[in-house]
Design brief:
444 residues, seven-stranded mixed sheet, alpha/beta, 13 strands
């Protein structure tokens, strides 16, 4: 009986030993306590998408036994708003491996476009800005001067444009301001707020050059092309405009002006390219002070002297300035500011006939009445075109078809004047996006 009890006791002890061995583990295999304490912990963030882990370092690969540090987290820069500030210094792009990286936008990579909008001109202005974006290559910074209650309407208009379009422009909205003289008097000069353009060199002190256009302008080719005229300026030229008319005997200034004007026919200020840096640093000759005046100091006395003799407001003042300073002005051809005057009395813009219209200027309200249907057809086609649709199918072909109804009018009788540049531009866009990516069999 005692022997049996001993056998049972030995068996129980052996069983307990086995249980401890298999379930408790071998003490020699246990890692040191210090190693357990270095378990990796990752910080938690509310916006995980705003962070990306860095690549694994070479040192961690070469020393697998060495404890690894938690992976470094790289903060992705948030997308910046372009409203109300200087040109945004950085933008997003995709790197070769698909990770977003930062790219510095150089000043020369951004074109500046200014417009002044008052009253019921918001929709017309948005259509002008849309036309600029349709064909242009470089990024554009819009400088919009508008009455306070219109700012929200511009914001709303921009908000419905696709992201692919929004990424191609920046914008700032400014209140209507006049630095010298009576603000109410300036605001009522010719058309509401039109005189604001005279003060652009004073207000936009951080901008070197810009293109000013009226709200009733449409781009039919890249803005980049007119921007190139800045490089064509000689050492004295600081602004560029097109002639008011091509034929002196039927031009307004040559027949009716009661004040000095530029050249033989005067100039039209609806499309005006400016080197603001040069304008700010120049003393302008005038009929009042022999020593010359800076741009800002010239405006008010000039207006006071001629206010009873001018008809077209700020445009007349510009004509007076460049009458006394003709060496400061560069003249570009009429197709860069093509107006009803170039066709309603018979075709008188030969450059437009040969090369096609580059910038269409629908003054006299022709986009919104039936007096010049050729102009309205172009405006409506751009207005109705949905961003990102095929340009040939959704813009050019409808435009071409609707032009058939205007061939019996003076301005519509030569359709290629309106269609040549826009077709050429579309083909260039198509070739850039599609044709250049197709390789010939011998190139593969």
């Amino acid at each position: 009986m005692r022997i049996h009890s001993k056998i049972v006791a030995i068996a129980v002890c052996f069983g307990v030993f086995l249980l401890l061995y298999f379930f408790g583990g071998n003490a020699a295999d246990e890692p040191p306590l210090k190693e357990v304490a270095k378990e990796k912990h990752f910080p938690s963030f509310n916006h995980v998408a705003d962070f990306a882990p860095a690549k694994e370092s070479k040192q961690s690969k070469q020393n697998p036994e060495e404890p690894q540090k938690p992976p470094r987290l790289i903060r992705k820069e948030p997308k910046l708003s372009s409203r109300g500030g200087n040109v945004i210094a950085k933008t997003r792009q995709k790197s070769e491996v698909g990770h977003p990286v930062s790219k510095v936008i150089r000043a020369e990579d951004v074109m500046h476009l200014a417009v002044v909008a008052c009253g019921n001109r918001v929709d017309e202005t948005l259509n002008m800005l849309k036309s600029a974006l349709l064909f242009s290559i470089k990024k554009i910074k819009f400088h919009i001067f508008a009455e306070e209650d219109l700012a929200e309407q511009f914001e709303k208009g921009f908000s419905v444009w696709p992201q692919t379009v929004s990424s191609r422009f920046l914008y700032s909205i400014y209140p209507i301001t006049f630095s010298v003289g009576n603000a109410d008097e300036w605001k009522k000069l010719f058309k509401p707020c039109a005189a604001q353009r005279l003060f652009l060199p004073v207000i936009l002190k951080d901008v070197d050059s810009l293109l000013y256009v009226d709200t009733d302008v449409l781009f039919l080719r890249p803005m980049d092309d007119i921007w190139k005229f800045l490089k064509a300026f000689n050492s004295t030229q600081l602004a560029a405009m097109a002639p008011e008319h091509e034929i002196p005997k039927i031009g307004w200034y040559s027949r009716f002006a009661r004040h000095p004007f530029y050249g033989v026919t005067g100039v039209n200020s609806g499309v005006m390219l400016m080197n603001l840096t040069r304008i700010r640093s120049t003393l302008f000759r005038n009929s009042m002070i022999a020593s010359g005046l800076s741009w800002e100091n010239l405006l008010h006395p000039l207006y006071q002297k001629y206010k009873n003799h001018i008809t077209w407001g700020d445009q007349d003042l510009l004509n007076i300035i460049f009458h006394y300073n003709p060496e400061c002005l560069y003249i570009f051809p009429c197709q860069w500011n093509y107006r009803p005057d170039h066709c309603m009395y018979g075709s008188n813009c030969k450059a437009g006939e040969e090369e096609g219209v580059s910038i269409l200027h629908g003054n006299r309200g022709v986009y919104h009445d039936d007096k010049q249907p050729a102009f309205r057809v172009v405006y409506d086609a751009i207005h109705e075109y949905p961003f990102e649709e095929n340009m040939f199918q959704s813009l050019f072909y409808p435009l071409q078809t609707k032009f058939l109804d205007t061939v019996n009018t003076l301005c519509g009788r030569i359709p290629q004047v309106f269609l040549k540049q826009i077709e050429k531009t579309m083909r260039a866009v198509y070739e850039k996006k599609v044709v250049r990516h197709v390789r010939l069999p011998h190139e593969k």
